């Protein structure tokens, strides 16, 4: 594996996080707490590995310029800007949400998880979309 493989790895990790988050949501709605916990830990793990790979890639490669033109460029920028802002916001929210769960402070956990889960899902899904737009749909020539 080389540095140039990391964007695809990152998109895969984001996609996996999305799957784990979705399953975790389903499991908690079904009162399957152990399965929920395991999925959320898996989502946290894949997101953490993603962050390490993302930072490694950008440390060695730098930024990648979006090649799309016209309206699609504005769509890309809107997705990217919201993705980046929420990716920054979600880190402390995830840590607080997990901390409350680990301490079994369920009422406080549920209160913040109502915000954490949809934002985390948005960041994971838009991470895949950003990858697709940068590297698949409008790649550098």
Model description:
The protein has helices at residues 6-29, 33-61, 71-102, 106-137. It is elongated and about 50 Å long. With 141 residues, the protein is mainly alpha-helical. It contains four helices and no strands. The chain is 83% helix and 0% strand. The model has no long low-confidence stretch (mean pLDDT 97). Helix 1 runs antiparallel to helix 2 (33-61) and helix 3 (71-102) packs antiparallel against helix 4 (106-137). The chain has one domain (3-137): Four Helix Bundle (Hemerythrin (Met), subunit A) (Up-down Bundle).
Structural descriptors:
mainly alpha
Number of domains: 1
Distance between the termini: 22 Å
Tally of contiguous helical segments? 4
In CATH, the architecture is Up-down Bundle
Please tally the β strands and state the result.
0
For the record, the CATH class is: Mainly Alpha
Low-confidence runs (pLDDT<50, min 5 residues)?
A: none
- Which band does the percent of strand residues land in? under 5%
The quaternary organization reads as single chain
Largest sheet: none
Short description:
Helix content is 83%, strand content 0%. It is built from 4 helices and no strands.
List the helices and strands and how they pair.
Elements: H1 6-29, H2 33-61, H3 71-102, H4 106-137
């Amino acid at each position: 594996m080389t540095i140039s493989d990391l964007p695809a790895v990152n998109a895969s990790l984001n996609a996996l996080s999305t799957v784990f988050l979705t399953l975790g949501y389903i499991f908690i709605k079904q009162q399957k707490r152990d399965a929920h916990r395991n999925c959320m830990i898996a989502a946290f793990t894949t997101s953490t590995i993603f962050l390490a790979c993302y930072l490694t890639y950008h440390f060695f490669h730098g930024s990648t310029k979006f090649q799309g033109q016209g309206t699609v460029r504005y769509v890309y920028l809107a997705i990217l800007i919201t993705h980046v802002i929420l990716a920054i916001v979600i880190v402390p929210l995830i840590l607080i949400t997990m901390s409350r769960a680990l301490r079994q402070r369920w009422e406080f956990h549920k209160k913040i998880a109502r915000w954490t889960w949809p934002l985390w899902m948005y960041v994971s899904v838009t991470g895949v979309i950003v990858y697709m737009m940068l590297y698949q749909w409008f790649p550098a020539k």
